[in-house]
Amino acid sequence: MEFRHILKELRQQQDLTLRKLGEKAGVSYSILNGIENGRIQPTADVVLAIAAALRVDDKGALLQLAGHTPSE
């Protein structure tokens, strides 16, 4: 599964809008929208910020799904 699909699924499971997730992660709505719609490839820093906001334990798996190595 692609990172963008996982992101949307995790966000919806926590009943968060893109705007609310953006506030929690410190990432703009337009960036998050672009990621979920496949127009933007997130940087490793953005993936880690999203993972922290969503309280994801396995940040390495999210980094890999987004095309980054966990050591970045």
Automatic annotation (TrEMBL):
It comes from Paenibacillus aestuarii. CDD domains: HTH_XRE (cd00093). Residues 7-62 form the HTH cro/C1-type domain. Keywords: DNA-binding. Gene3D superfamilies: lambda repressor-like DNA-binding domains (1.10.260.40). It comes from the Bacteria. This is Helix-turn-helix transcriptional regulator. The lineage of its organism: Bacteria, Bacillati, Bacillota, Bacilli, Bacillales. The keyword DNA-binding applies.
